[in-house]
Amino acid sequence: MRVIAVKTLKEYIVEFYQAEQALLSWHEEALLANWSNPNELKAQYRNASVLNEKRVVFNIHGNSYRLIVDIEYRLKIIFVVWFGTHNQYDKIDAKTMSYVKTN
What CA–CA distance (Å, rounded) separates 12 from 16? Predict the structure, then answer.
């Protein structure tokens, strides 16, 4: 698979340096992957959350961080959408990338 954009991943590593090794490991595995559909992805990453036909959330660094990507399976491209802490993730709607209102 091709990951778009590596520059974005590097920026996340600067901000969340504790997750560097885990994020780099995910990136390496993603480059070697050849998923044709969400079922193949889930066979490799059982803890990944498939939100719709292309949006996926990966648990990174022991579930301390979340990585949201869009995957174009036919084109073999992964688009990095968002990365942050589990706490930050809880404040957004991963499907729409909008903030969740709290009362």
Answer: 6
